[in-house]
Amino acid sequence: MKIALFGKSVISGDAPFIGSLLDKLHAIGAEVLIHSHFFGILKEFVTFNNDPILFSTQADLRGKADLLISVGGDGALLDTITLVGDSGIPVTGINMGRLGFLSGIARENILPAIDDIVEKKYTIDQRTLLKLETTSGLFGDFNYALNDVTVYKSTPVSLVAIKTFINDEFLNTYWADGLIVATPTGSTAYSLSCTGPVLTPDSANFVITPIASHNLTVRPIVIPDDSRITLFVESRGFECLVGLDSRIEKIDNSIRLDIRKEDFKINLLRLSNQFFYKTIREKLNWGLDIRN
């Protein structure tokens, strides 16, 4: 079995768990590939008897891994999307952070989780992506997102006006701090913090959520995921920002943003004891009696 590892940072408290992961992968005879930047950080905390195979790009990984494990939080897992692309390589995450909606394996459960993976006690969830198209080729070949496409102001000075069309039909001009277009996966991320609804992962929908709308009657709207969303951004003399998950670029008033469903999906590995409704109950504390 060929397993790739990716991470963005390591703290001393994580090192024993990562060491246990590497020992476990060695014990099951897995061939381990490590992202070159992550390996540079790990060497300060973990002793390697042999130099692992390193990778840096999607081309390095394509056809060479059966699974990619993200070590960190949801932000680290989101960064793996540009590494796997349309290769079909499944991704799972070990949560070294706090909330961890996407990174569903607690660091205390690393060893039994690897056993479950070896014994194929898992399901592959195909998650929809958003694709952003612009005449300027913003984000290059990596113009897709698992969570959301977000447009927001770059300064606290004033609002932005975002003229929004669905399938060329005018929806609304959002006077707000910004606007989020989220997938079902992203509905539990930034959109949720802006009062957007929770969508189940298999929902064939997107949600459009304003950020701090100037008009208090404007609310998030759920639309079919085969819709084409077009955004025109107007600001008072300052640049705005557009984000694909955690990647950010500056834009000006001349740009048109076209958003649609990407042609391929991302495969997230879900262990047999992981369920969406269970996750939101636990992560969002649903059903708890907080009166005491």
- Average pLDDT level: 92
CATH-defined architecture of the largest domain: 3-Layer(aba) Sandwich
| Rg from Cα | 20 Å
How big a fraction of the residues is strand?
35-45%
- What is the total number of structural domains? 2
> In order across it, which strands form the biggest sheet?
3-2-1-4-5-6
CATH superfamily of the largest domain: Probable inorganic polyphosphate/atp-NAD kinase, domain 1
Task: Describe the sheet with the most strands.
Answer: 6 strands, parallel
**CATH topology label of the largest domain:** Rossmann fold
Helix content: 10-25%
E-strand count: 20
Q: Helix-strand pattern, N to C?
A: EHEHEHEHHEEHEEEEEEEHEEEEEEEH
Quickly describe the structure.
This protein is of the alpha+beta class and 292 residues long. It has 8 helices and 20 strands. The chain has a 6-stranded parallel β-sheet.
Describe this structure in words.
With 292 residues, the chain is α+β, with helices and mostly antiparallel strands. It has two domains: 2-128 and 265-284, Probable inorganic polyphosphate/atp-NAD kinase, domain 1 (Rossmann fold, 3-Layer(aba) Sandwich); 130-261, Tumour Suppressor Smad4 (Sandwich). The protein has helices spanning 15-27, 36-42, 58-61, 74-79, 81-84, 110-118, 190-193, 276-284; strands at 2-7, 31-35, 53-55, 67-72, 91-95, 105-106, 122-127, 130-133, 144-145, 148-153, 160-166, 169-176, 178-182, 205-211, 221-224, 229-234, 240-244, 247-251, 256-261, 266-271. The strands form four sheets. It has a six-stranded parallel beta sheet. The longest helix is centred in the N-terminal third of the chain and has 13 residues, at 15-27. It is globular and about 60 Å long. The relative contact order is 0.15. The model has no long low-confidence stretch (mean pLDDT 92).
